[in-house]
Write a structure and sequence with these properties.
The complex is a heterodimer of chains A (520) and B (343). Chain A has 13 helices and 7 strands. By secondary structure, chain A is an alpha+beta fold. Among the domains of chain A are: 200 residues, Four Helix Bundle (Hemerythrin (Met), subunit A); 153 residues, Heat Shock Protein 90 (2-Layer Sandwich). In chain B, helix 3 packs across helix 11. The longest helix of chain B is centred in the first third of the chain and has 34 residues. The radius of gyration of chain B is 27 Å and the shape is globular. The chains are: A alpha+beta (520), B alpha/beta (343). At the A-B interface, helix 2, helix 4 and helix 5 of A face helix 1, helix 2 and helix 4 of B.
């Protein structure tokens, strides 16, 4: 890491700068290449130009020589001072031109020819001068001979110039050929370089872009991991100074703070859940306490014991009716005080109701007509203890007690497809709908009119039914109105019955197995 | 981390590759443009200075003989820091050897190597050059009357004997005519002819001495294409048609080679040619030509430069540099072919 920080100046730059630098570098390279290539071409062009320049100067030289020779001829013919003047001027310029010529022995066909031209020209000029002087001196023989020789030399020089010219032309052609070739080569070369540079540029870009996309991909993978709920991820090690480094660091920070936040959230949720659990448990305890409290209301130990004593006494005194009465009383209350058991069977409940009705009929000299109709096979249905008796008690106290017609109470237990229906029906005073609603809502307090009661009100019954079965609305009250009697109906759903049946069967199986175990 | 570092190296590597490829291509391009090209082209740009400048004046610049001589002379000259030029082929009009002598003299060269044409004008020109301080070396032909500094070549006696011996090899009982074809400018032509004749006659068996005619045919080199015509005439005309045909010149030999094939005379006429041009070597291999006498051109070129150099260093030089004569027959033709291929 340290090493990279020291070396990787490039890697600390932003993506933008990196990209710009890459493109700029390529552009500069292309530019340099082109400059160099065009430089080469220009170099060739210049050398070509130079040669053409020498061609031009050679032509000038040839022309000058021709004029000199023409001047001599003219002078010989006419002896005009103009031609002589021209002659001297041309000789002057010819000699000047010759100074540009090579006069050394160089191993170069053209240079050596230049030297030869130089030497021959000097020779020729000497002869020309000699011719002029001879003409001036009127030495006919001499100037004729000198002119003849000069003419020969003149021809040689012209030929030499011609040769040099053609050689240069040949060289130019070769040069031109070379130039064409080199131009073609340059074309191929520059195309090649462009391709190479483009390929390398693409490679650099690929590598560069991968350095950009790879951390992004890694970040995406990390983000997906985080999305799946895994906060214990190791982030890609990317500490570059560019935008990606910034993003990576920000992401890392975000994950850290998310992790912290989630931990806090989890803690508080756990605490809340714990609180809820405690609340629920308290509620349960409360309900239990309530149930126990309600059951505690009907706990007349003393009365039960006294009744037993009374029954025994009546037997001793042969008061059979009294004894039966007291026995029924004792049974009724014994049933009542079996408070440790919360549940009872329907049979037990019905017996308790029988006892209660018997007691009442003794008390009120058989005023109450009690009718009972029970479907078979329902004796073992489980329900809370002391449910039916308070209902019947209510039917007596609030229904038929003060009516002028003969009071009647009907108790039906029917097993229908929806479940078990327990119905307690009286032909008493009846109830208004408002009253029914109040009773069902538990807004009527029994102690208001608690006279001659076992102490268990309707609200108690309703609450205990709800607590026992865990279902609301099992108890319903129906009435046709004032004076039209009341029906209290308890509906135990079939699924509850089925569950009870299953539980019972399981218990029996266990019992059987236990017995088998003992037998074995 | 490792992968990132690898990527970083990849980028640097790519950059290095880029730079390297650019440098390579530019260097290659410059090299190509500046240095690759034919030798001739490079020669035109040479700026090497030499201490002396000689010219070689051939009588026939096109011939392989002269090209070979010049090549060897040039090599020798380069060794001695001298520039030697084959002075010929100026403009379209034909300058004579004399004109080139004049041009060389006017150009103030440092030495002239020339094959004299045997005329008195040439002798005069050589003398004139000598007077102007330019040493002249004659090759192939000598001009003993002139003030030339040295002669490089084969003397007429040696040449005559060699050709004569080769002719003897070809003589049988049916041989009646031997024609010797020679350039009219050949300086020692009479001497050579005499020598050939003498050699043949000396080697002939008695019974054939009267039967065989030895003729000399000279061709004027100045008239263009004449050689070819004369040779064809010899083949066509039954009276003149020789049994042994000695060609003392490269061009004549080649003409004879073609003519013998064209007139379907292979086997009837025995040709003894000159020089080892490719045409001759092929003909020798096929058996069209019986033998060829070849000058050692390498020695010739080399020694002509040596003679001039010796003159400049010592103030004088050998009067005569002898050059070997090779005899090529179908038996040893292959080794000459190899030599020729190598060159």
């Amino acid at each position: 890491m340290e090493k990279r920080k020291k070396h990787g100046l490039f890697w600390r730059l932003s993506i933008q700068t990196k990209l710009i630098m890459t493109f700029a570098l390529t552009a500069v390279l292309m530019f340099v290449i082109n400059i160099i290539l065009y430089g080469e071409v220009n170099h060739s062009m210049r050398s070509l130009d130079e040669v053409y320049a020498t061609n031009v100067s050679l032509n000038a030289l040839a022309e000058c020589l021709e004029e000199i020779h023409g001047n001599i001829l003219e002078y010989l013919n006419t002896k005009s001072s103009d031609s002589l003047e021209d002659y001297y001027r041309k000789v002057q310029s010819y000699q000047e031109m010759l100074t540009n010529f090579n006069d050394k022995i160089v191993a170069n066909k053209m240079k050596i020819l230049e030297r030869n031209i130089c030497n021959m020209s000097k020779n020729y000029l000497v002869l020309a001068e000699e011719t002029i002087q001879a003409k001036r001196g009127r030495n006919v023989e001499r100037y004729k001979a000198a002119f003849a020789e000069g003419s020969r030399k003149y021809q040689y020089i012209q030929d030499a110039i011609y040769n040099l010219n053609s050689m240069q032309f040949q060289r130019n052609s070769t040069n031109y050929q070379m130039l064409l070739e080199s131009l073609g080569y340059t074309e191929v070369l520059s195309s090649g370089i462009v391709v190479v540079v483009a390929v390398i540029n693409i490679l650099i870009l690929i590598v560069l872009l991968r350095t950009i996309t790879e951390p992004l991909r890694m970040l995406a993978v990390s983000a997906n991991e985080v999305a799946r709920g895994n906060f214990d991820i190791t982030l890609p090690d990317y500490d570059s100074g560019d935008e990606l480094g910034v993003v990576t660091r920000a992401f890392s920070k975000m994950i850290d703070s998310l992790r912290e936040y989630i931990t806090k959230l989890r803690d508080s949720m756990e605490k809340e859940q714990e609180l809820k659990k405690r609340e629920f448990r308290m509620e349960t305890y409360l309900k239990d306490a309530q149930l126990k409290y309600l059951q505690a209301q009907i706990n007349p130990h003393f009365l039960f014991n006294s009744l037993n004593a009374g029954a025994q006494l009546a037997m001793l005194e042969d008061a059979e009716k009294t004894s039966i009465f007291l026995e029924k009383m004792a049974d009724f209350f014994r049933y009542n005080v079996r408070k440790a058991e919360k549940t009872a069977t329907l049979l037990e409940e019905l017996e308790s109701v029988d006892n209660y009705v018997y007691i009442l009929n003794v008390r009120f000299a058989g005023e109450i007509r009690y009718e009972k109709k029970i479907d078979p096979g329902v004796d073992e249905v489980q329900l809370p203890r002391m449910i039916l008796q308070p209902i019947v008690e209510n039917a007596v106290n609030h229904g038929i007690r003060d009516v002028e017609w003969a009071g009647q109470i009907q108790l039906f237990v029917r097993h229908i497809s929806e479940g078990l229906v327990i119905s307690v029906k009286d032909n008493g005073q009846g109830m208004t709908q408002e009253r029914i609603r109040k009773v069902l809502e538990g807004r009527v307090h029994e102690n208001e009119e608690q006279k001659d009661s076992t102490g268990i009100g309707m609200d108690n019954v309703i609450n205990r039914l709800e607590l026992f079965f865990g279902i609301k609305g099992l108890l319903q009250i129906y009435s046709g109105g004032i004076g039209k009697g009341t029906e209290v109906r308890i509906m135990i759903p079939e699924k509850v019955l089925a569950m009870q049946q299953q539980a019972k069967e399981a218990q029996e199986r266990e019992k059987m197995q236990g017995q088998d175990g003992v037998l074995q | 981390m490792k992968r990132r570092r690898q990527k970083k190296y990849a980028v640097y590597l790519a950059l290095a590759g880029l730079a390297a490829s650019i440098i390579l291509t530019i260097a290659g391009g410059s090299y190509y443009i500046r240095f690759v090209g034919n030798k001739e082209w490079r020669n035109l740009y040479s700026t090497k200075e030499c201490k002396r400048y000689y010219v070689m004046i051939p009588d026939d610049s096109e011939s392989v003989l002269w090209q070979d001589i010049y090549k060897s002379a040039k090599e020798e000259a380069e060794k001695n820091d001298v520039y030697v030029e084959l002075l010929c082929d100026w403009r379209s009009e034909d300058y004579s050897t004399l004109s080139y002598m004049d041009i060389a003299e006017t150009s103030k060269v440092d030495g002239i190597i020339v094959k004299p044409d045997g005329t008195s004008k040439m002798t005069k020109a050589i003398d004139q050059a000598n007077e102007a301080g330019i040493p002249v070396v004659t090759i192939l032909n000598d001009d003993t009357a002139s003030s030339r500094k040295s002669f490089v070549g084969v003397n007429s006696y040696q040449m005559g004997t060699t050709y004569g011996r080769q002719a003897l090899e070809c003589i049988d009982t049916s041989t009646k005519t031997i024609t010797i074809l020679m350039d009219s400018r050949e300086s020692g032509k009479e001497l050579i002819f005499k020598e050939i004749k003498a050699t043949i006659q000396a080697g002939l068996p008695e019974e054939l001495k009267d039967q065989i005619q030895i003729r000399l045919k000279t061709i004027k080199a100045t008239s263009t294409f004449e050689a070819e015509e004369v040779i064809r005439d010899l083949f066509v005309n039954p009276e003149e048609r020789p049994d042994i045909f000695i060609c003392m010149n490269e061009v004549y030999s080649e003409c004879a080679c073609h003519a013998i094939v064209d007139y379907n005379r292979v086997g009837d006429i025995a040709i003894i040619g000159s020089y080892r041009s490719d045409v001759m070597l092929n003909a020798l291999r096929k058996g069209t030509v019986m033998a060829a006498v070849a000058l050692d051109t390498e020695q010739m070129g080399q020694r002509s430069i040596e003679a001039l150099e010796e003159y400049y260093s010592m103030g004088y030089t050998n009067n005569y540099f002898s050059v070997d004569l090779d005899i090529i027959t179908s038996e040893n033709v292959d080794q000459y072919r190899k030599k020729s291929d190598q060159e």
